[in-house]
Amino acid sequence: MPKRKPTGSPATDDPPHLQPGSQIEISSNDPGFRGSWYTGVIIKRAPSKKPANKFVVEYTHLFEDDAGTKPLRETIDAVDLRPPAPREKLRKFKFSEEVDAFYNDGWWEGVITKELENGRFHVYFKRSKEQLEFGDDQLRLHREWIKEAWTPPLEEDKQAKESDGAATQVKMENNKVVARGKLEHDDTASKKKLKTDLATSGGKLESSKITKYREGERVEVTSDEDGFEGAWFTGTIVKAVGKDKYLCQYDSLRTDDDNDFLKEEFDALHIRPCPPEIVMADAFQKLDEVDAFYNDGWWVGVISKVLNSLPEMKYEVYFKATQEEMKFKHSELRIHQDWINGKWVTPSKALKS
């Protein structure tokens, strides 16, 4: 009986990267896993009585059992799935560049805080407030999958390749992170998707420098609560309430009865000084990382489009935490800065020509 020739048409009406058998990267909103991407494969669209855009996926390096014989399967929303991120064959990484670092079987978003010798770097992870050391073969430039395209795009004049998933990560697994000597990590341990923070998994290079604050000092505070990730709100230190913990009063958020400004307790890792003002005489450019003032707070995003409008320039800003785009005036934006180990760091624009 002759074999049936493939038609070349997709198995479903879904985008190419969501077809059964397609290699993908998977994100998670679970505590301890935000800001990371793990490789896997699409198994099928998840059955549902209600309209839903979810898929059954199988992880490449996460397993259900301690022996590592049964790959973990989960049902994931389509917004948390994307093709494998592209990666240059050769790239010279620089201080303050936003990168993805391969760690604990996944890619974690961070920023280069120091260039070392022999192609090694310190990378700071904003969410866990940790800093680790990586080789350049364990890094890739951070990119976002926006409207079925990569931002920033891979430069065509460089010899580029798509991340190969399993092959690339097997190579990296043989070159685990070294943090001031031998990394305390048990490779024979279960690869099950543990609901723990990156900070608890070992390999800590150095603790973040804890900033001390005084009563009455002006600060910005952030929260890990859903819906507030990536936002900073201005306020004032009321008093210290414990070791590296403070009571802060917001400038603009009020109590439920609207009788006073809201006060909350924060640990020092969720507080920072107010960033210095950087005057932007010229317009922002596409791919600039910015903070946008919205709902009484500053929300980190990326300029996705420059709009030529008068009398004031406007921009479309993409927020990766919510995968939304919104329009802002020039006066509603500021250059994004990170407070890392007692210093302000301004991420460089990715692939700036």
Automatic annotation (TrEMBL):
Residues 1-32 are annotated as: Disordered. Residues 16-89, 91-147, 211-279, 282-341 form the Agenet domain. Pfam families: Agenet. It comes from the Eukaryota. InterPro entries: Agenet-like_dom (IPR008395), Agenet_dom_plant (IPR014002). Residues 20-30 have a biased composition (Polar residues). This is Agenet domain-containing protein.
